TrEMBL record, chain A:
Protein name: DUF3341 domain-containing protein
Keywords: Membrane, Transmembrane, Transmembrane helix
Organism: Nannocystis pusilla
Keyword DNA-binding appears in the UniProt entry: no
Domain of life assignment: Bacteria
TrEMBL record, chain B:
Organism: Nannocystis pusilla
Name listed for the protein in its UniProt record: Polysulfide reductase NrfD
UniProt cross-references to InterPro entries, sorted A to Z: NrfD-like
Gene responsible for this protein: nrfD
Main localisation: membrane
Transmembrane helix among keywords: yes
Family: Belongs to the NrfD family.
Membrane topology: Multi-pass membrane protein
Pfam families on file: NrfD
Length: 175, 467
């Protein structure tokens, strides 16, 4: 392996990068990644990526809600009996309100942090940031990346393949 | 009506969300990022008065802490005055932000993209203002941590059966989730600002908060999933928050408060007032920042339609309250509503009705819905009316209730006024800082709804189908 982390092809349009990603999959590459200023419809499907964040939300919400509901019951019915306004100790209807809020709070916090973990954020430095053209990935350019760790990756062949997709330019990503 | 012909998207046949032929992604980035990178000196014209009002607020709170809540015009029957009125008012303002960012997202309303950032910022700042009031309205604000269920040496717990405790859970959850939602939405735009930054300080500051966002497919996939889940969680949250705020009243035994209609009625009122505040803020913003092609007249028109819808729901609730007061056959309940119409506070009631019932009905007229001047004026009226709604509900029900020997009149003092006026200072100071340092429009999201973002835009000809 050379000193390359991979090759990065730059495109001007969303349709170009979508077609390029599909072509790269057909050509058998697997270490693929697309960079775009907004989520381009169809790219995730073309690269066969999936997200399982919804499970995190579900489990965290369930745990948070159950915990606060049981905690309130424990406070009023077990730990500290107080007759406040003649209401029963285990006032389930009243407990629903904090239960609802804490369910949402724990589900939301867990979802966001799971998203950060899944995306490897925060990561303030990344080799891609060393490429001057990559600045436009967050503005108006679209990039297809093939990693050097791909079993099919051979520098000259991969470069020729990317050139065949008619990009604006192919950039080397150093290690 | 040729003058109302909007441009249509060649693929979907719907109205174009960004005005102007051949607007590119670069143009959108420039339009939003320019005012931050090359700030106009006119910003100070808004910022300096805001900070002065913030000073008024800080002085009012300092004096309150020194002297006690007696500096306000509260009396024994009316122990909830302007502080609670302002609390409900500010929480209500916040609700439109979440409606725009979450509920319209679930309904796939693409017109939300150009207004959601500013509306979410408005939510957060309005909730910050709202949180001040329950804190300082307590006689001893230094014990404000007692409502939190923290293990302590006294082995005491809060009472989970009180709506005021539910408020603590509701509003702090609302603040946290809205802040997360807003921040998650900001990350891609912070990355854009980082990549455009010319100075090391900017690059560092935006880079730090952008967390190293690279816009990869994996990033976007998890981001979109998280965003949708947050929208799904925020929707019941926003409905529950104002519901719980309404429980502060509805759970009591008081005629005029003990009303089962309050939860949906308060939520409708909150969205009504919140949208009015969004208009009040966005109309100057789009003119000063030259964003008329991104926040177009179609966006404003849609907001006016939602104000019309929720305003009509509020009007219906007013009528239903009166019907039930009569239908209940309860003398206290009938008296409470007669008292609103003709009692000591008749003027407050009639200000409320004229602003909230009549104002939105103007939006049936297309010419008014599409007139920036009319929208601005009417949005101010709605804000005034909704403040009076909370005043009428709180004060008129309290000042005359069961025992005539406990009837009194409530007049605010100068400190009530200065706290309310000052809370606007807090709000506008935060909002000015937001427009100065953060992108006021969600750049990435606007790009994704432009017709050139559609992968079929070039390839399949002008009338291809979307799938």
């Amino acid at each position: 392996m050379s000193g390359l982390r991979g090759l990065l092809a730059e495109f001007a349009g969303a349709d170009d990068v979508l077609a390029a990603a599909r072509a790269a999959r057909r050509a058998g590459y697997v270490a693929l990644e697309v960079f775009s200023p907004y989520p381009v419809e169809g790219v995730a499907e073309a690269l066969a990526f999936r997200s399982r964040l919804a499970w995190v939300t579900f489990i965290a919400g369930l745990l948070g809600g159950a915990t606060i509901f049981l905690f309130q019951g424990w406070v009023h019915a077990i730990d500290w009996h107080l007759d406040i306004g003649g209401r029963r100790s285990f006032a389930a209807p009243a407990f629903i309100v904090p239960t609802f809020e804490i369910t949402i709070l724990s589900a939301a916090l867990a979802t966001v942090f799971a998203m950060f973990v899944k995306n490897g954020l925060p990561r303030l430095h990344h080799p891609l940031f060393a490429i001057p053209a990559f600045e436009r990935a967050s503005q108006d350019r679209f990039f297809l990346f093939i990693g050097a760790d791909d079993p099919r990756f051979a520098e000259s062949a991969a470069r020729a393949f990317l050139e065949s997709l008619a990009p604006l330019e192919v950039h080397d990503v150093p290690r | 009506m040729a003058q109302y012909q909007d441009e249509l998207d060649p693929i979907t046949g719907r109205k174009e969300l960004v005005d102007g032929a051949n607007v590119t992604f670069h143009d959108v980035t420039e339009a939003v990022a320019r005012p931050i990178e090359v700030p106009s000196s006119r910003w100070w014209i808004a910022f300096i008065p805001s900070v002065m009002l913030l000073g008024v607020y800080l002085i009012s709170i300092a004096y309150l802490l020194y002297m006690g809540t007696g500096i306000w015009g509260l009396n024994n029957p009316v122990a909830w005055g302007w502080a609670i009125v302002n609390f409900v008012f500010w929480v209500g303002i916040g609700h439109a932000g979440t409606l725009i960012s979450a509920i319209l997202f679930l309904f796939r309303q693409k017109w939300r993209t150009s207004i959601n950032r500013a509306a979410e910022a408005m939510t957060i700042f309005a909730v910050i203002c709202a949180l001040q009031f329950p804190t300082f309205h307590t006689g001893r604000p230094w014990f404000i941590y007692w409502p939190l269920p923290l293990p302590n040496q006294m082995e005491m717990w809060p009472n989970f059966r009180s709506p005021l405790l539910w408020d603590v859970f509701a509003v702090s959850t609302y603040f946290t989730v809205s802040l997360l939602f807003w921040y998650v939405g900001l990350i891609p735009d912070l990355a854009t600002m980082r990549d455009r930054a010319k100075t090391p300080i900017r690059r560092f500051a935006y880079g730090l908060f952008a967390l190293g966002w690279r816009g990869s497919t994996r990033h976007w996939l998890n981001y979109e999933k998280a965003y949708m889940i947050l929208a799904g969680l925020s929707t019941p949250l926003v409905l529950s928050v104002h519901t719980i705020v309404s429980f502060d009243f509805a759970v009591s035994q008081l005629p005029g408060w003990h009303t089962t209609i309050f939860p949906p009625y308060f939520v409708a009122g909150a969205i009504f007032s919140g949208f009015a505040m969004v208009l009040t803020l966005l109309l100057p913003l789009r003119a000063w920042f030259k964003l008329e092609h991104i926040i177009t007249i179609k966006h404003l028109e849609n907001m006016a339609k939602i104000i019309l819808l929720t305003g009509t729901m509020v009007g219906y609730a007013y009528a239903m309250e009166f019907f039930i007061a009569w239908y209940s056959g309860n003398p206290y309940e009938s008296f409470a509503f007669q008292n609103r119409l003709f009692g000591d506070y008749w003027w407050a009631y009639w200000i409320m009705v004229s602003c909230n019932v009549i104002t939105p009905q103007f939006f049936w007229i297309k010419r008014i819905r599409r007139s920036v001047v009319w929208l601005f004026i009417l949005s101010i009226f709605v804000n005034i009316g909704m403040w009076f709604e909370r005043f009428v509900i709180t004060v008129t029900s309290l000042h005359h209730d069961f025992l005539p020997s406990s009837w009194d009149y409530y007049s605010p003092t100068v400190w009530d006024v200065s706290t309310l006026v000052g809370s606007f200072g807090l709000f506008f100071t935060l909002f000015c800082l937001f427009v100065r340092y953060l992108p006021t429009v969600a750049i990435g999201e606007v790009k994704s709804v432009m017709s050139i973002a559609n992968p079929h835009y070039h390839g399949d000809g002008a009338h291809g189908e979307r799938h």
